């Protein structure tokens, strides 16, 4: 895999890219919810959506803050991120019965650790973690 520095992950641009992941993810989930006929009351749910955006951005802020500019850790982080959020979207469709999926909720609470761990492990394995 090509470990050349990824354009846009150096310095302030890397932080901007990391900060953009969370709001884009939450906006995408809200768009799918609305397209599926759901409702969204921003007067009550804005705090939850803001928390989710911060939690979704956290592992990528860790990568940017660590100075990781290689492509592989960012791609692995995004792949795991998309996998977890995709599972959150598909769960109500694929599962019969009502109620909350507590297990998936707990996994989503840990998702920043899972995504960050996968990305940092990839960075370490490819030798792209800068020396402190």
Protein described:
With 132 residues, the protein is an all-alpha fold. 73% of the residues lie in helices and 0% in strands. It is built from 5 helices and no strands. Helix 1 (11-35) packs antiparallel against helix 2, helix 3 packs antiparallel against helix 4 and helix 3 runs antiparallel to helix 5 (111-125). The longest helix is centred in the N-terminal third of the chain and has 25 residues, at 11-35. It is globular.
**Secondary-structure element series:** HHHHH
Largest sheet: none
Let me know the average pLDDT: 87
Give the overall shape.
globular
Head-to-tail CA distance between termini? 25 Å
- Low-pLDDT windows of residues: none
Output the number of helix runs: 5
Helix content: over 70%
Rg (C-alpha, Å): 16 Å
Secondary-structure content class: mainly alpha
Percentage of β-strand residues? under 5%
Q: Any chance you could write out the topology, listing elements then pairs?
A:
Elements: H1 11-35, H2 42-65, H3 71-94, H4 102-109, H5 111-125
Helix pairs in contact: 1-2, 2-3, 2-5, 3-4, 3-5
Compact description:
73% of the residues lie in helices and 0% in strands. It is mainly α and 132 residues long.
Task: Using brief descriptors, characterize the structure shown.
mainly alpha, 5 helices
